[in-house]
Automatic annotation (TrEMBL):
Belongs to the short-chain dehydrogenases/reductases (SDR) family. SUPFAM superfamilies: NAD(P)-binding Rossmann-fold domains. It comes from the Bacteria. GO terms for molecular function: oxidoreductase activity, acting on the CH-OH group of donors, NAD or NADP as acceptor. This is Oxidoreductase.
Amino acid sequence: MKEVKAFRPGLFSGNTVVVSGGTSGIGLSLAKGFAEAGATVIATGSSERRLATAKAEERGGISFQRLDVRDKQAVTTFFSGLKRLDVLVNCQGVARPDAEWEEETFMDVMDINLSSAMRLSRESFPLLKEAKGSIVNVASMLSYLADETVPAYTASKTGIVGLTRALAHKYGREGVRVNAIAPGYHRTEMTKPLWSVPDSEKKISDRSALKRWGTTEDLVGPVLFLASPAAAFVTGVTLPVDGGYHVG
């Protein structure tokens, strides 16, 4: 993973990192990145299928646990079982195209994508305060743009930007930093319907300033930077990592 090699070996040695939504896609790449940088990583997810797949593949430094981020009691119990926490990565997220126009689906997506970020951040705060740690949220280029097929996803990811700012001010007085990244078009299962079709794949590549799709590994370096001592005076920031797509 080339991004990790940009940092000194063992940068996060002795640190405990929780990556919510870390059993596949972007979250799994972030979990691997922190583990390669020396951290003890707990990656959570609610899909039994993805948990089983992740557990079946041995990954040094990463343990996988089931956590339904919509369940407040489960979240409280999860963090009460930790002795230390240095970094929380809120990477949980879903998109349900077209179905999000139905109220029940809209509210469920908002809960998973936005409300849970507040829930996890609040419940983890005592541990982060003790460690003078940090939170990295995962927003989206749809925090700035729009997609009419996913109104809840668009609204929730826009909300992540505002929540990041609010948490940064609330928690900053206790030495806890809160930042976010805003991924663009990266090759994941969620975006497969687009990158697997040559016409749409090319259209998106052409709009990007770098003329390519992102990989999940492209997100690792920015997240490690935001969680590292190199960003000690950076908080409340949402960093676009989209190859220049949203400014195209």
